[in-house]
Amino acid sequence: MPDHDLFSSRNILLPVERNEAIRVLPTSLDPPEHRPFRNLINHGLSPKVVRGLEPSIRELTVSLIEAFRARGHCEFASEFAELLPISLFLKMVNLPVEDRIRLKALSEQVNRPDGSMTPEAVNQGFYDYLMPVLLERRANPGGDLFSQFLAGSIDGRPMTDGEAFELCMQVLIAGLDTVVSVLGFLMMFLARNPDHRRQLVDDPAMIPPAVEEFLRRFPLVAIPRTVIRDMEFQGVTFKEGDLILVPTMLHGLDDRSYQCPLDVDFSRRIGIHSTFGAGVHRCPGSLLARAELRIFLEEWLSRIPDFDIAPGRTPKVLYGIVGTVVDLPLVWQA
Amino acid sequence: MVKLIVIDASGAEHILDAEAGRSVMKAATDALIPGIMGECGGCLSCATCHGYVDDAWAPRLEPPSDEEQDMLSCAVDVLPSSRLTCQIEMKPELDGLVVRLPAAQF
């Protein structure tokens, strides 16, 4: 993934024909065109910005947990995992939280298409929603992330409406998925592993390293790259135009890098893995994701230290370019 | 090999033998030193390899580029001695360089 001069990002969706209908920026650009767009995202999700968001993340996390705590059960995916990151993100881009259902449904069709919508219809769905918002923000800019993007300069010129749409659509899709999915996988694990849960309840200082271990252990993304020219690369022959699927999950689960890689071990020393990708396209939301996961574990475990998967129920997972958990019924002593 | 001293936020000193040509960020993250991330691998996209360079060493470094200064504005607890350590390449003239890490990267 760091070798962007050999492996292009021009097609990032599968099946590959979908890339003609759904174009996103800057994920589908290679350097140097990629840089000015990415720079706007770097500033919008910077360490400084994420630190400033922590109180909102905490407040939202607590209110969501308190909404169902006394009841003794919840369906974690729809009652928590989908609400925290999406509500937070919609706040960052100043869109009404009620729009999350419409937007999440469209994002699902990008990351895990089920055949119910053509890619053209998905793109049109985003366009119909976003374009009026972006034109309004261009006319009356605010302090939100989309307004910041629109005010940005692309090599000295303003962004076109088309570019603004593709950039904001990409950021929406990324912000409405992924953290949702990591939350699901780590809670499925904690529900089934009381000893691990106990370690974090007894010693909350273990939570930050635990977040790093969960990120290593539960990667989500498999994304394509396109070979730029005929070449031999690390002993493999490639032809120009060959499409490669990069399963990011293999890297952190490689037993040459991590002993007993499938075991979750909060004391493990964690070096590189590819959960957030690598190189110029590396996930710019990785700090926001870490902050959300850490604050979530702190607030959940101090309120609901013991919980289990509802008896007789099996959690349901779905796969696509981003894997996710769609049904995770949890129970606890209220 | 060039000596590099990284002092983490707890005050612990890590003495490293860095390969000439390798960045301070790479040398520190290879050694799994706590408190430095280097999320983007050194392409000036993340501001998570933030460190403070001791005054005595600052004049011996190349000044930060515009791109580095721009990304440095994204970091937390920035001081006049702040640098993004992926932009500091180890070389024999920097033998014994001291870099302190901030309390947190984000």
Compact overview of the structure:
The complex is a heterodimer of chains A (334) and B (106). Chain A has helices at 18-21, 34-44, 47-68, 76-81, 83-92, 100-111, 119-139, 145-151, 161-175, 179-192, 194-202, 207-217, 249-252, 286-303, and strands at 7-8, 73-75, 153-154, 157-158, 222-227, 231-233, 236-238, 243-247, 308-309, 316-318, 324-327, 329-331.
Describe the model.
- The complex is a heterodimer of chains A (334) and B (106).
- With 334 residues, chain A is mainly α.
- Helix content of chain A is 49%, strand content 11%.
- In chain A, helix 3 packs across helix 5 (83-92) and helix 7 (119-139) crosses helix 9.
- In chain B, a hairpin with a 5-residue loop joins strand 1 and strand 2 (13-18).
- The model of chain B has no long low-confidence stretch (mean pLDDT 96).
- The A-B interface holds A 2, 38-39, 42-43, 46-51, 269-272, 276, 278-280, 282, 284, 286-287, 290-291 and B 29-30, 32, 39-41, 43, 45-48, 50, 70-71, 73-76, 104-106.
Write the layout of secondary structure elements.
The complex is a heterodimer of chains A (334) and B (106).
Chain A: E1 7-8, H1 18-21, H2 34-44, H3 47-68, E2 73-75, H4 76-81, H5 83-92, H6 100-111, H7 119-139, H8 145-151, E3 153-154, E4 157-158, H9 161-175, H10 179-192, H11 194-202, H12 207-217, E5 222-227, E6 231-233, E7 236-238, E8 243-247, H13 249-252, H14 286-303, E9 308-309, E10 316-318, E11 324-327, E12 329-331
Antiparallel strand pairs in A: 1-5, 2-12, 3-4, 5-8, 6-7, 9-12, 10-11
Chain B: E1 2-7, E2 13-18, H1 24-30, E3 50-53, H2 66-72, E4 82-84, E5 97-100
Parallel strand pairs in B: 1-5
Antiparallel strand pairs in B: 1-2, 3-4, 3-5
Secondary structure class of chain A reads: mainly alpha
Mean pLDDT of chain A: 93
Secondary-structure element pattern of chain B, one letter each:
EEHEHEE
Compute the separation of the termini of chain A in Å: 47 Å
What does the oligomeric state look like here? Answer: heterodimer
What's the number of extended β-strand segments of chain A? 12
Helix share bin of chain A:
40-55%
| Major sheet summary line of chain A | 3 strands, antiparallel
Task: Provide mean pLDDT of chain B, rounded.
Answer: 96
Strand percentage of chain A lies at 5-15%
Cα radius of gyration of chain B in angstroms: 12 Å
CA radius of gyration of chain A is: 20 Å
